[in-house]
Design goal:
The complex is a heterodimer.
Chain A: E1 6-17, E2 20-32, E3 37-41, H1 48-55, E4 63-68, E5 71-72, H2 78-88, E6 89-92, H3 104-109, H4 121-134, H5 150-162, E7 168-172, H6 180-197, E8 200-204, H7 208-211, E9 216-221, E10 224-230
Parallel strand pairs in A: 3-8, 3-9, 6-7, 7-8
Antiparallel strand pairs in A: 1-2, 1-4, 4-5, 9-10
Helix pairs in contact in A: 4-5
Chain B: H1 2-15, H2 18-56, E1 60-65, E2 69-70, E3 73-74, H3 85-94, E4 98-103, E5 105-107, E6 112-114, E7 117-119, E8 123-127, H4 131-134, E9 142-143, H5 148-152, E10 157-160, H6 162-168, E11 178-181, E12 184-191, E13 207-211, H7 212-219, H8 240-245, H9 259-264, E14 277-281, H10 287-301, E15 312-316, H11 317-360, H12 362-370, H13 375-411, H14 420-446, H15 450-455
Parallel strand pairs in B: 8-13, 10-12
Antiparallel strand pairs in B: 1-14, 1-15, 2-3, 4-14, 5-8, 6-7, 6-11, 9-12, 10-13, 11-12
The chains are: A alpha/beta, B alpha+beta.
The complex binds adenosine-5'-triphosphate and magnesium ion.
Chain lengths: ~230, ~450
C-alpha cells in the first residue's frame, strides 16, 4: 500500500493550565490517505478540534509523531509550518473568518499575498473569480461579508481555502452555523471537490448527518480514537 | 513590487477605519507642523541676522589701545593712548590684506541744529576719507563724502544720515545747507544712503559723520567725552556697537570739568593720538590675514619685544557673528526640542492606536497566519501601517506648517524662509516614529500563536 498522506503515531497534546498539564490527546494513531473524505466525529470536548489544528499545522503536539508524505514533521519551526499551511493546506472554519469590509473577491485573494511563487495580478484575479464562480458566487464577487448570508459567506471561505490549490482541506464544523438546507449544499460542494479534484478533506463534526457525507470516519472521545467506520461510497 | 503591494494592503486596512486613522495622524500632523513652522521662523531669523551683519560689514576690524605695562604696573585698557595717526598710515601702506583704514572717534549727545529745527542724532561718527569705504556706506545718496584734504584741514563739513535729513531738512535738499553741531557751524556736503536698523535694532541712519580731525579739535571740548575715549571702561574692550547698546557709564577717576574749567584748561590732547582705528579687510576671508599683518605692523612700530603683550587689541565681526548665530541657533534648537517633544507625544498616540488595532484585529492576524503568513510578514504589515500613518501625517504636517509660516510671514511680518532641511528631517523623523512606536505593537502581533489568535473573541 502507498505511504499514507498523513500518519500519526501516538500523537499527544497536553495544555498547560497553571502548574498542571491537562492531557487532551492521549496517543492518537491514524492514517489519512490521499483522496479521502474523512470525518472526525465524537462528543464535545473530545479533542477533535485540537487534533485538526495539529494536523493543519496551526498547533504543535506535545508527544508522538506526525509524518506528512512519510516525512517527519513533528517539530517544525513556526516559519516552516506557515509555509506548509500556505502551500498544502486550506482551512474552512465554523465562523467563516472572513475579513470584514472586504469584498468576496479580495477575501479569496488574501492567501495569495503570502504565497512564495506569485502569479501576475491578472492571473490571480482570474483564478479567484473562477473559484467564486465554482462555489456559485459569480454574481456576488464585490459583496462584503455583511451583505451575504451565512451559506454564501461559507462558500467564499471555501473558495479562499482553494485559492492556493491545497492538497488537503480542513474544515472544523463548517456547517455548524448553517441551517440544514445550506449545510447540505456546502457538504455537497466538499463531496464534489473531493471527487472531481481529488482533494483530501478532513471534516470535524459531531453530527451523524454530516458524517454520512464522508467516506470514512474516526470517533474521538476523551482524547482517544474509540472507533472508526469505513464507509466505501 | 512587494513593497508596493505591502503599502497597498496597509493603505486598505487604514482606510477601513478612516476616522481613527485621521485622529491618530493628528498628533504627528501637529508635531511636524510645529517643527516646520519653528524651523522656518528660525531660518528666517538667522537669515536676517546674516543679512544685517553683512550689511554692517563682515570684513570690518576694530583696533583699540590696550593695557600697557609701565614697569610692571598695568594701567588698564586704554590707560595710555598709544595709537597714532602714523600707525593708521602705516597700516594703510604695509598691510596688503587691508582695503581701507580710518581713525575712529564717535560721540553721543551732540545736538544738531539747522534753521529752527533741532535734533540729537544717536551718534556722531568721525573718520578720514576712507571711513565710508571701511563702513561700506557705498555711494552717497546725494552730494559727496569728505576728501583727504578736508580731513587734513579739519574742515567743518558733515555728511548726514537719512534720519537726520528727515528730522532737520524735511522738505529740502540738505546739501550745501548749514548745520550746527554743539554750536559749531558745519556745512552739509552729502547725504548717506539708507542702511536701516542694524541687528541690535539701532537706527544706523540716525547719524552725522564728520572728519575725525574736526571731531577731535572742535567737538571734543564740550559735553561728555568721546565714546572711544571713555578710556578705563572695560566695556570698551567689546565692539563700539555693543557699547552703544550698553553705554558705558564711565566712572571717571577725576571730577569732571565744568564749562569754566574746560575753557581755562585746554584738554591735554596729544595731537597725534587716536582712540580707535577701524580697518576693513579686502574680503571677509582675508580678515585673519589682515589681523596678522596689522598686529605685526603695530608691534614693530610700538617696539614690543617678542614675548611681550600687545598694547592694542583687534576685534573683528566674526566673534559677533558667532555670538549672534549661536544665539539664534540656540533659540531654534529650544523651539525644535519643544516641537520634537510634541512629535514624541504624537508617536505615543500612534503606539496606543496600533496596540488597540492589534488587539482588535487579533482574529484577522490569526486568519492571515492560518493561510500561511509568517510572523515576519505580520510584523512588516503592521510596521508598514504605522509608518504609512506617520508619513502621511508628516506630509500633511509639512503642508500645515508651511501654511502656518506663510500666514505668520504675512500677518506678523516676521522673516520666514523655507527650510528644505526641516522638511526632509520632518519626513525622516515621522517615518522613524512610525518604526519606533509601531514596532512594539507589530512585534506583539507577529508573536501571536495562530490558533489562539483565531479563537480570540
Ligand atoms: N487553549 C486551551 N487551553 C486549555 N485547554 C484547552 C484549550 N483548547 C482546548 N482545550 C481543552 O481541550 C479539550 C478538547 O477541546 P477541543 O476543542 O479539541 O474539543 P472538540 O472535540 O473540538 O469539542 P467541540 O465539539 O465542542 O468543538 C477540551 O476539554 C478543552 O477544554
Ligand atoms: Mg471543536
Amino acid at each position: 500500500m502507498a505511504t499514507p498522506l498523513i500518519e500519526l503515531r501516538g500523537l499527544e497534546k497536553a495544555y498547560r493550565l497553571g502548574d498542571v498539564d491537562v492531557p487532551v490527546l492521549k496517543g492518537i494513531d491514524m492514517e489519512i490517505h490521499e483522496g479521502t473524505l474523512l470525518a472526525l466525529m465524537g462528543p464535545s470536548g473530545g479533542g477533535k478540534s485540537t487534533l485538526m489544528n495539529i494536523l493543519g499545522f496551526l498547533d504543535v503536539s506535545t508527544g508522538g509523531q506526525y509524518l506528512l508524505d512519510g516525512r517527519d514533521v513533528t517539530t517544525l519551526s513556526a516559519n516552516a509550518r506557515a509555509d506548509l499551511r500556505n502551500e498544502r493546506i486550506g482551512f474552512v472554519f465554523q465562523n467563516f473568518n472572513l475579513l470584514a469590509r472586504t469584498s468576496a473577491l479580495k477575501n479569496v485573494l488574501m492567501p495569495l499575498e503570502y504565497a512564495k511563487h506569485r502569479k501576475s495580478a491578472r492571473e490571480e484575479r482570474a483564478w479567484a473569480e473562477s473559484l467564486l464562480q465554482r462555489v456559485g458566487l459569480g454574481e456576488r464577487m464585490d459583496y462584503q461579508p455583511s451583505q451575504m448570508s451565512g451559506g454564501q459567506q461559507q462558500r467564499v471561505a471555501i473558495a479562499r481555502a482553494l485559492v492556493n490549490r491545497p492538497k488537503i482541506l480542513f474544515a472544523d464544523e463548517p456547517t455548524g452555523n448553517l441551517d440544514s438546507k445550506t449545510s447540505e449544499e456546502v457538504l455537497r460542494m466538499f463531496q464534489e471537490l473531493n471527487e472531481q479534484e481529488g482533494i483530501t478533506i478532513v471534516l470535524v463534526t459531531h453530527s451523524a448527518e454530516v458524517g454520512a457525507f464522508a467516506k470514512e470516519a474516526y470517533h474521538i472521545k476523551d482524547g482517544l480514537i474509540v472507533g472508526g467506520t469505513y464507509t466505501e461510497k | 513590487m512587494f513593497l508596493l503591494a505591502q503599502i497597498g494592503s496597509a493603505f486598505v486596512s487604514l482606510r477601513r477605519n478612516v476616522l481613527r486613522s485621521l485622529l491618530t495622524m493628528l498628533g504627528i500632523v501637529i508635531g511636524v507642523a510645529v517643527v516646520i513652522t519653528m524651523m522656518e521662523i528660525g531660518a528666517g531669523a538667522s537669515k536676517s541676522i546674516q543679512a544685517s551683519i553683512s550689511n554692517m560689514g563682515t570684513n570690518v576690524l576694530m583696533i583699540w589701545p590696550w593695557a600697557t605695562k609701565t614697569a610692571g604696573i598695568s594701567s588698564g585698557s586704554g590707560g595710555a593712548v598709544t595709537l597714532t595717526e602714523e600707525d593708521c598710515a602705516a597700516i594703510r601702506a604695509e598691510c596688503l590684506a587691508v582695503e581701507a583704514v580710518t581713525p575712529s572717534l564717535s560721540r553721543r549727545g551732540i545736538q544738531a541744529i539747522a534753521g529752527n529745527r533741532n535734533w540729537t542724532p544717536f551718534t556722531v561718527y568721525s573718520g578720514n576719507e576712507d571711513y565710508f569705504t571701511v563702513q561700506s556706506w557705498g555711494t552717497p545718496d546725494s552730494g559727496r563724502y569728505f576728501t583727504a584734504r578736508e580731513v587734513r584741514t579739519a574742515a567743518c563739513v558733515a555728511v548726514i544720515g537719512q534720519t537726520v535729513k528727515r528730522e532737520l531738512f524735511p522738505n529740502e535738499d540738505p546739501v550745501g545747507k548749514d548745520l550746527r553741531l554743539n554750536s559749531v557751524l558745519f556745512r552739509v556736503i552729502g547725504v548717506l544712503p539708507i542702511k536701516g536698523a542694524n541687528m541690535m535694532g539701532m537706527d544706523q541712519d540716525d547719524t552725522v559723520i564728520v572728519p575725525w580731525t574736526t571731531m577731535r579739535n572742535r567737538l571734543s571740548r564740550s559735553g561728555g567725552s568721546a565714546t572711544g575715549a571713555s578710556g578705563a571702561s572695560s566695556s570698551s574692550s567689546t565692539e563700539s556697537d555693543t557699547s552703544d547698546v550698553y553705554p558705558a557709564v564711565s566712572a571717571s577717576t577725576y571730577p569732571e570739568q565744568d564749562s569754566v574749567q574746560a575753557e581755562n584748561y585746554l584738554l591735554p590732547v596729544r595731537f597725534n593720538n587716536i582712540n580707535q582705528i577701524t580697518a576693513s579687510a579686502k574680503t571677509a576671508e582675508q580678515v585673519p590675514d589682515a589681523i596678522e599683518q596689522i598686529t605685526e605692523v603695530l608691534r614693530r612700530r610700538h617696539g614690543i619685544q617678542p614675548g611681550e603683550e600687545d598694547d592694542f587689541v583687534i576685534r573683528d565681526m566674526s566673534e559677533m557673528l558667532k555670538t549672534m548665530t549661536a544665539t539664534s541657533g540656540l533659540m531654534t534648537s529650544l523651539l525644535l526640542i519643544v516641537a520634537l517633544l510634541s512629535l514624541v507625544v504624537g508617536g505615543v498616540g500612534i503606539m496606543n492606536i496600533m496596540l488597540v488595532s492589534v488587539t482588535e484585529r487579533t482574529r484577522e492576524i490569526g486568519l492571515r497566519m492560518a493561510v500561511g503568513a509568517r510572523g515576519s510578514r505580520i510584523l512588516t504589515q503592521f510596521l508598514t501601517e504605522s509608518v504609512l500613518l506617520c508619513l502621511l501625517g508628516g506630509l500633511v504636517g509639512i503642508g500645515v506648517g508651511r501654511l502656518a509660516s506663510t500666514i505668520i510671514a504675512n500677518v506678523l511680518g516676521w522673516p520666514v524662509s523655507v527650510s528644505l532641511g526641516a522638511i526632509l528631517i520632518s519626513a525622516g523623523v515621522s517615518a522613524a516614529i512610525g518604526v519606533v512606536f509601531g514596532f512594539y505593537p507589530a512585534w506583539r502581533a507577529s508573536r501571536l500563536n495562530p490558533i489562539d489568535a483565531l479563537r480570540h473573541e
